[in-house]
Design brief:
alpha+beta, Beta Polymerase, domain 2, 2 domains, 11 helices, 7 strands, 15% strand
Length: 367
Amino acid sequence: MLQKLRSGKYLSLLINPLDLLRTKKVLQVNPTIEAQRKEPEETKIFVYDYNSEEVKVEEVASLPACYKYLDSAKASWINVDGLRKSDVEEICNHYGIHPLIAEDILSIGQRPKMDELNGLLFCLLNMLYFNETDNTVESEQVSIVLGKNFVISFQEDNTKDVFNPLREKIKIAGSKIRQSGADYLFYSLIDMIVDNYFLVMEKLGERIEALEEDITRRADTKTLSKINTLRKEMIVLKRSISPVREVINGILRSESNLVDEKTEKYFKDVYDHIVQANELAENYRDMMINLQDLYLSNVNLKMNEVMKVMAVVTCLLAPATVIGGIFGMNFEKIPWLHNQFGFYLAVGMMLIIPIWMIVMFKRRGWF
């Protein structure tokens, strides 16, 4: 029992509890489990109703206030921050969004996907952020619904957002988005999420380069911990990015009347970006594998150097051990045993032979 307690104590010094929690969060994702999301105290709804001539920005105080935009002749963007089950279901019922889509919106850990139900296009993506403090990749599930002349986006957290540049473009008269319809807005939202993937990967790339330098200079247990941490973040990155290719491809192949033919070329551009992002994520994953191999090689190299020094020291001490052992035997007659210079001869041989061995090792390039 005492031995188990001691082993657990030493194990706790090697394993960071925060790393174990991160591993559990990264690997244990089950979308079939009923969502246990903590509902926000309130849902904030912002509406951008615009056309080429004018734009109206409004934060609605209640859900019925945004229902009038269903029949608006302008393009309307309804952004819902904070997912409360009752509010989401009420909005979905009013806008004719299928209950299965509403279930996906409220779910946790869903794989990025797209669906076309009830004449609406639905797209679910992960919006990624890089936490500079913890060096971790954080994700937020974003659901986007495209209908006739309206786009509804559902976000979990209103404190993080990559859509601010889009909001500024909507306010600019004569901008491309003001000249286009809801399908272009739908594209713009997806495009900004995908473009933000590259910013996150750039941060990870910087961490990988710094880690490579650390491994080259010094390889210790802290370095190994950093490698494992980055590998977990690569799992989050790959799991979020890889399915988006199928999502964009599904939109291009849907042949929905909601997406104008002129807008399809923009989705093709997003498809090219996500293919590039997938390739970059694969490269980063290969780099992490190479870094782990480099770490193991450096550790083995250091171990070989230590063993080499120990072997040389053992070889240099071998003559002294042999000579001392011979003259320490319990025989009555040993040459030079009673010679007055015997001690000095033995010590001299103990010094001369190792020096000769060092010279021979040097010539052969053994060290």
